[in-house]
Amino acid sequence: MESGAGKHWTEEEVKALLSVWSEKNIRKQLHGTLRNKGIFIYIAKRLQELGVCRDWKQCRAKYKNLKYEYRTVKYAHNSGDVTKTMKFFHDLDAILRYEPVTQLAAEENGRCSATETQLHTSPATESVQ
């Protein structure tokens, strides 16, 4: 399967990316690292083994785009708009559901500090909180 810089990702390529991304060690590394070029080089190599020829920059761009689109749809659903949807939403939901997100919280002295919160929780845990 030949893929160049300007080519759109096929459904099979996205599925391969999601399968690598869904691995626990990959998710953990992606969450905890700001400079993640090495992780995406590894992901690109893994995709090559699966027959997907994409470089690390393409993998990172697709990862970021999928994550952005997922969060947009998730926010719409949480706001009551269930008409907004995307392909692979359920796959991404399984990957990203419990991913902690760093948020800035204002402290008493006026400075901000980073705090980790659960981005998505199940309805059962929401009622407990």
From TrEMBL:
InterPro entries: Myb_DNA-bind_4. It comes from the Eukaryota. Pfam families: Myb_DNA-bind_4. Residues 7-95 form the Myb/SANT-like DNA-binding domain. This is ZSC20 protein.
